[in-house]
Amino acid sequence: MKVKLFSVLAEKIGPTIELDLPQVFKSSEVLDQIKEKHPDYADVLNQSLVAVNEEYTNEEDISLDSVDEIAIIPPVSGG
Q1: Distance (Å, rounded) from C-alpha 46 to C-alpha 19?
Q2: What InterPro entries does the database record attribute to this sequence (predicted)?
Q3: Domain boundaries, the chain
């Protein structure tokens, strides 16, 4: 499953990352898989939100069949 990345994650890792997700997964598993591949960005990922089909989620069980898009939204910074 391709996962879209934004902001600093997109700049450092790329605009998408391919993950091997099980048929039913938790949003935390998405972040954990990215942290395994890119441990240097664990701090940013720990503060990031997961969006499934353009809605933020912290659902315990997400069915891959119902997913069109997954995106990781890092915290917004600026001043």
Answers
A1: 17
A2: Beta-grasp_dom_sf (IPR012675), MOCS2A (IPR044672), Mopterin_synth/thiamin_S_b (IPR016155), ThiS/MoaD-like (IPR003749)
A3: 2-73
What are the residues whose beta carbons fall under 8 Å from the beta carbon of 28, sequence distance 6 or more?
A: none
Half-sphere exposure (Cβ direction) of 60: Cα atoms closer than 13 Å: 0
Residue 24 identity: V
Strands 70-73 and 2-5: parallel
Using the structure block, give the residue that is written with the tokens 């048929």. Answer: 23
Tell me which residue has tokens 């069915």: 63
- The CATH architecture annotation of domain 2-73 reads Roll (3.10)
Q: How many residues does the chain have?
A: 79
C-alpha of 35 from chain center: 10
pTM as predicted: 0.91
Per the DSSP assignment, residues forming a β-bridge with 5 are: 72
Confidence of residue 59 (pLDDT cuts 50, 70, 90): confident
